Amino acid sequence: MGSLLLGVIAKPDLIVFLAAALVVVAGGIGVISYRNPVHSALSLVMTMFGIATLFIEQNAQFLAAVQIIVYAGAIVVLFLFVIMLLGVDRAEVFSRERIRAQRPLAAVAGVVTLGEILILGHATWATGAKAATGPVGNSSDNVFKIAQVVFSTYLLPFEATAILLVIAVLSAVYLSKRVVVNVDEALEAPLEVASSSDEESFDEVTTPKTSSENDDEVYEV
Amino acid sequence: MTVPGNWYLILSAILFSLGVIGVLVRKNVIVMFMSVEMMLNAVNLSFVTFSRMLGDIGGQVLVFFVLVVAAAEVVVGLGIIVSIFRRRVGVTADDLHILEG
């Protein structure tokens, strides 16, 4: 036991890996087990930081920085904004189930997934050949190597991501636009859309009515 | 590198399975979305590990693209969630049973 402990301490890589793996798994369990979504989001940040540590451990410094900036800095903050904005930071009710025994079945499915991945990991790889995109640099020229490949071999996908981001921005703007379906309903209750709680108003607002129904209503009013 | 790549892959598999369980168990759609992000992170970790094991920078470039797609996905997904729940008070996937056939 003592020699094993000494062997672990003599390998700093192993210590970093074990600590980061602990952080990653603890954060992952926290995401799926905290009842409050805000706590889940903070656990997600923990997982992201653990993975960024593992990236650095594997000589992917650029990706580690991007991971922290994009995920922990932007995406999780976006999650938190939505949680706070919608006021959905209430604990969810676990007792009411629409599908019976969904939770045990989900746990079984997760364990089966893990087993499948681990079994497949023992299979021989389809192609064991080393790909020829470019060599991994040492710790000092990681950004240089990535840039070299992105701007030569993967130039077209890189430009496609620019188009993708523009489309994402446009769709976000369009989705967050407030659309009024029925003019007469909006005149009757302008704030009803935001605060309606029963299902009936939701159905009325969203389901498009045929023109004849609309005409009837208008004439009745 | 003293830590073998298999350990990273096993950790990645564990994290992916946690994400699968989260998507299946949780009913809050935002938390389900976070679990999807967790699965993406697990795959990113395995990409970087393969990049190191094969000595090829292509895996890291692929992670870069996955990050971009994940950012776009989060923007659109959260936009959809906001636009759905602005007219609803429910936060769980069960409240969306209007989608049932």
Commentary on this structure:
The complex is a heterodimer of chains A (about 220) and B (about 100). With about 220 residues, chain A is an all-alpha fold. Chain A has helices spanning about 1-10, 10-35, 35-55, 60-85, 100-120, 140-150, 155-175, 185-190, 190-195, 200-205, 210-220. In chain A, helix 3 packs antiparallel against helix 4. Chain A is extended and about 65 Å long. Chain B has one domain (about 5-100): Helix Hairpins (Orthogonal Bundle), CATH 1.10.287. Chain B is an all-alpha fold. Chain B has 3 helices and no strands. The chains are: A mainly alpha (about 220), B mainly alpha (about 100). The interface between A and B is large, with 94 and 74 residues.
Estimated structural class of chain B? mainly alpha
Shape of chain A: extended
Label the overall shape of chain B. elongated
Mean pLDDT metric of chain A: 76
At the fourth level of CATH, the homologous superfamily of one domain in chain A is: NADH-ubiquinone/plastoquinone oxidoreductase chain 6, subunit NuoJ
Q: Name the assembly state.
A: heterodimer
Task: Provide the gyration radius of chain A in Å.
Answer: 26 Å
Give start-end ranges of low-pLDDT stretches of chain B: none
How many domains in all of chain B?
1
Distinct helical segment count of chain B? 3
SSE map:
The complex is a heterodimer of chains A (221) and B (101).
Chain A: H1 2-9, H2 12-33, H3 37-57, H4 61-86, H5 102-122, H6 142-150, H7 155-175, H8 183-188, H9 192-195, H10 199-206, H11 211-220
Chain B: H1 5-25, H2 29-54, H3 58-85
Helix pairs in contact in B: 1-2, 2-3
